[in-house]
Amino acid sequence: MTAKIAYDEVEAGTELPAQTFPVTRATLVRYAGASGDFNPIHWNEKFAREVGLPDVIAHGMFTMAEAIRVVTDWAGDPAAVVEYGVRFTKPVVVPNDDEGAVIEVSAKVAAKLDDGRVRVDLTATSAGQKVLGMSRAVVKLA
Amino acid sequence: MALDQSFVGRTYPPTAPYEVGREKIREFAEAIGDANPAYTDQEAAKALGHPDVVAPPTFVFAITFKAAGQVVEDPQLGLDYSRVVHGDQKFAYTRPVRAGDRLSVTSTIEAIKSLAGNDILDIRGEVHDESGEHVVTAWTKLVARAPEEA
């Protein structure tokens, strides 16, 4: 494991470079295939509405996968992430148009832990709504 | 109807090994749009100290969730899966999942709660490789929403 960020270079409050991730219906179909999650709420508008959703929604695990990219891109080595957890608070609604939705992710070092590790808190929003809660990673730095 | 509390602590048999393929990792990385070379380029992964390409942090969910199917579909537990949503997800890694791993999952029901008519089920999946070494633990909280009044 070889993170490119040194523990001594960061402090509580250090912000990671924020990123935005577009998501369209095509993205969701592709993620369904790659992940094996074919729940129709992620691709079938009629079905989604029948179960009370406003429209097709992104897989929660897709949003979780995008959010941690802010940390893995920062740390360089994905194996630097030793813990990662989220709460799925609101769905990412994905309309059937060329634009789809956007997930905006920011993150900052919340605390320095022992053994070269830091806790990073993530914030993920879409259409102004917080889509992940309690979103935290423990990251082992160099 | 509330789920039977006596299922708390129940552990299901380990799953048959899932073999992690390089191309499956590539497919997953492309699906999340992540161009990190550690997922697709063996040399880049080796430069980071890994014996082969590694999987993105959430990749293992596909394996642990399939394993959790033993719990979710246990007719004795009687969970109404058509009403289930994913509440929380957490992973703790001993090492990253990598190509060539043969992973087996042991699922345990950690908690069952009933809140405002919703059934809340916490499942822990312990993932081990072929040599029995721990790779990652996945905690999945599922919420079965209360049926609407007819």
TrEMBL record, chain A:
SUPFAM superfamilies: Thioesterase/thiol ester dehydrase-isomerase (SSF54637). Coiled coil: none annotated. Residues 17-122 form the MaoC-like domain. Transmembrane segments: none annotated. Gene3D superfamilies: Hotdog Thioesterase. Belongs to the enoyl-CoA hydratase/isomerase family. This is MaoC family dehydratase. It comes from Streptomyces roseicoloratus.
Automatic annotation (TrEMBL), chain B:
Pfam families: FAS1_DH_region (PF13452). CDD domains: R_hydratase_like. SUPFAM superfamilies: Thioesterase/thiol ester dehydrase-isomerase. Residues 6-137 form the FAS1-like dehydratase domain. HAMAP family: UPF0336 (MF_00799). Belongs to the UPF0336 family. This is UPF0336 protein RGF97_12845. It comes from Streptomyces roseicoloratus. The lineage of its organism: Bacteria, Bacillati, Actinomycetota, Actinomycetes, Kitasatosporales.
